[in-house]
Amino acid sequence: MYHRRTPFRELHDFWLGRLRKLWWDDWTAIAAMIQITEERFYKFSAKVSICCFYIRVFVTRRFHHAALALIVFFAVHAIIFLFLVIFQCMPINATWDKEIQGQCLDVSAIGNGGAALSIIEDFTLVILPIPELMKLQLTRKRKLAVGLLFAVGSFACIASMVRLKFLVSYSPSYDPTYDYQEIVLWSAIESSTAITCGSLPALRPLFRRFSGILNTLKDRLQAGHRKEPNASFVTVKAIHSFNSSKETSPKYPPQRPRLLVPFDASGASKDVTTTMGMIDQGEKDGLELEDWDKERRES
After folding, report:
1. What are the sequence ranges of the domains in the chain?
2. Which of 14, 55, 250, 256 could anchor a disulfide with 19, C-beta 3.0 to 4.6 Å?
3. What residue spans carry the region label Disordered (predicted)?
């Protein structure tokens, strides 16, 4: 009889002290209960968030009334569908315990009706803001962003229609765990698309900040690249260091200051060796002139 205990009964007995400890199967049952409960509301929450975004963007009173009426319709649909799922069998235990003789509703009809209403709701969300958008003066960039938002919403409508097709094809089913894999897949696609569509407007500040971080990193990399010395500068600096050490070494006599010769910083069209040879030749000519002037004065 343990398999007939519900998670609520497990928590109730644990709270009253009838159970000393919850085992791993109890915790998985509680997790399954929470998951099934929140699955009833994720589509409703995503659609309501999109309606709230519409209300914030468009300021006309007529549009606000239409969006609020749509939110009320979503809420009524979610509550009715939740009660139909909970009370599909009387007594409720007959839903999971097939040994109990009870009266149950047609689950396939409930699922098909909910899928059809979901398609209508998705198309309504896509069509509702179009008249207001036609009145706005938007830039080309904003028009592309709005077009992307509507494209994502249209894909959610397509996913709803594909899911309804599989619901009709596999109802009733004698092996739900195998036959309902396409239904579960397209249901996940529809809900994920709706959540993404409702989250895109809120992601705009994040994208703007991320683009600013990328621009800052790009500027820093370019600044660091400009500070790196080129090959000609390194070569001339090395030669200058060698000549300085040569002039200060006791092995060589002191020399006169060298002449400055213009040098191209790019180093692409001049040879460093040739330039240094020209400098040495000029120094030799200067020394010969100095010796000749000294001999002329002595004579």
Report:
1. 40-203, 231-298
2. 14
3. 244-299
